[in-house]
Amino acid sequence: MSAVVHTGLLTARAYRGTVRIPVFAAMNLVQPMIWLLLFGQLFRRVVEIPGFAAPGDTYLEFIAPGVVMMTAMFGAAWAGTSFIQDMDRGVMDRLLASPASRAALQVSSMIWYAAVAVVQGLVVLGVAWLCGARFDGGPLGILVLLLATVLLTCLFAAMSNAFALLARSQEALIGLSQLIVLPLMFLSSAVMDTRLSAGWVETAARFNPFDWAVVAGREALSGSADWALVGGRLALLAAAVLIMTWLATGAFRAYRASA
After folding, report:
1. pTM of the complete model beyond 0.85
2. What is the pLDDT of residues 64-123, one digit of tens each?
3. Residues 55, 246: Cα–Cα separation, whole Å
4. I need a labelling partner for 211 at 20 to 30 A (CA). Which of 52, 76, 91, 127 fits?
5. At residue 204, what are phi and psi to the nearest 5 degrees?
């Protein structure tokens, strides 16, 4: 029970930090709005390419789940900056010297960034709907997409926290995060159907956790979802989250050893 209490207290701490400077959360919505509205109009005719998507789909409906996941991934990739700020201020050493659970330090960060990603995802879907996108999956499809968003956010928040504990540098964290998230975004079906890409891109997407989330969310929002595919992708994401959380929690030992 103490780990649960610690997680709740540390999540509340992250919430207070965001509430004090809400402009950062609002600014995180600027880029996805550009992707959604600009790309949605720029590439709206690509759905007419044979084999691109199911007949009747608009490109806005195709890209909306991808934008939700891009928002979640890019936001979670910055999670480690909070750890680095705590290191620079001496707060991390105090937390590690306290009875606070190491797992609680990780999980609270993951929970908070997941909550922010859910709100941002709903905003993206709402803007897409106002622009004419319609999602036949209904409330169930939206819930599944949000579940995929939570899993993806937790995965990359844990990864970012692990990088922060190992690198202990804001610049190194940013460089490592961008080195990973940008290729993962382009090696996916977020903005383009991989069936129309080079064969190696489609193959790489099958092993891409970002694409797992995009496929699960897009499929769930469709009117004829392949639930076996959705369940498989969610299961892969959940397994990746558990492994990365374990690795990220273990990174505290490396941080203490080098302190």
Report:
1. yes
2. 999 999 999 998 998 998 899 888 888 888 888 888 888 889 999 999 999 999 999 999
3. 43
4. 127
5. -65, -35
